[in-house]
Amino acid sequence: MFSRRLTYRSPFDWRRTLAFLDARRIEGIESVGEGRYCRSARWNAGASSHIGWLRVRAVPDQDALELEGSDSLAPVGDPIAAHVRAIFDLDRETTQALRALPAGTPMHGPMRLVGTFDGFELAVRAVVGQQISVKAARTVIARFVSAHGAALADAPAGIERVFPAPATVAALDVAQVASFGINARRAQTILVLARAMAEGSLSLAPGAPVEATVARLLAIPGIGDWTAQYIAMRALCWTDAFPAGDLAVLRALGARTPARAREIARQWQPWRAYAVMNLWSSLGAAG
Questions:
Q1: What three-state secondary structure class fits 19?
Q2: Backbone φ, ψ for residue 251 (5° rounding)
Q3: How many angstroms separate the CA atoms of 162 and 150, rounded?
């Protein structure tokens, strides 16, 4: 097992971050409990692919998280640690972003951005969850992982498989993807995403060019503004992402339309994603 200590500058609400992840966790690849977030992981390094598990917890009485991982991931421990820093937003002083939010914004916080370890996994979640609840989407994706995810041995309890790689999904047909509880249109969208990522024409990770990536996503049939903005927010860790059509955001802002939500949020640029995180938090972990 390898470990890294990841320091940050306060404030950082780890408890609320765990609640956010727990509300969205997929059975078999993620677990949350006893102050820890644990998940399976795949890391590609050149022609090599490393799979294993990761566990993150807050260090008591220190402004730091402790990252632990399986021996299988130790050879790529440093890039994984840098990636985990990015997806937990550890290099940001959140007070800078929160100062841009009006005092009347309904929220509990401060919440940092919460990214995702696997951009393809997040994109599939977003497509599946377009018109169903978070809970229903978790159920559909768990079935998909159980059927097509690679088995993982010697992992902590609750971590059984790794989310299917884009190349694995790209080899399926529409009926196979749809059979887990989605319609053929969304299944086709997932296949287009899988093929684009498998061939390398689409990257969904921190550091990817935001404008070009959002445009590429919007060009895929079945992906609209909400899905593209949500992926940009959590996979690219874009601080100004704003899914204006998100029902929870509309509810929290008291806005009737996405256009009105964008008007309200204009003054928050370039930190609108922080407002979204805190608005979701104001409505509970699931947003």
A1: helix
A2: -65, -45
A3: 5
pLDDT tens-digit profile of 143-174? 999 999 999 988 999 999 999 999 999 999 99
Q: Tell me: the pLDDT tens digits for 192-213?
A: 999 999 999 999 999 999 999 9
- What's the half-sphere exposure (Cβ side, CA atoms, 13 Å) at 283? 17
Instruction: Show the tokens assigned to 218.
Output: 């919007």
The three-class DSSP label of residue 3 is: strand
Ramachandran bin of 247, using left for φ above 0, alpha for ψ from -120 to 50, beta for the remaining angles:
alpha
Instruction: State how far the Cα of 124 lies from the Cα of 187, in Å rounded to an integer.
Output: 9
Distance separating alpha carbons of residues 193 and 172, to the nearest angstrom: 12
Q: Would you say 249 and 229 are in contact if contact means Cβ atoms under 8 Å apart?
A: no
What span, in angstroms and rounded, lies between the C-alpha atoms of 235 and 51?
Answer: 19
DSSP-assigned states of every residue in 149-163: SEE--S--TTB-EEP
Give the helix, strand, coil percentages of the chain, each rounded to 5.
Answer: 45, 15, 40
pLDDT tens column, 238-273: 999 999 999 888 988 889 999 999 998 898 889 899
Nearest Cα neighbor of 205 from 79, 96, 99 is 79
Residue 244: burial class (beta carbons within 10 Å; 0-12, 13-18, 19+): buried
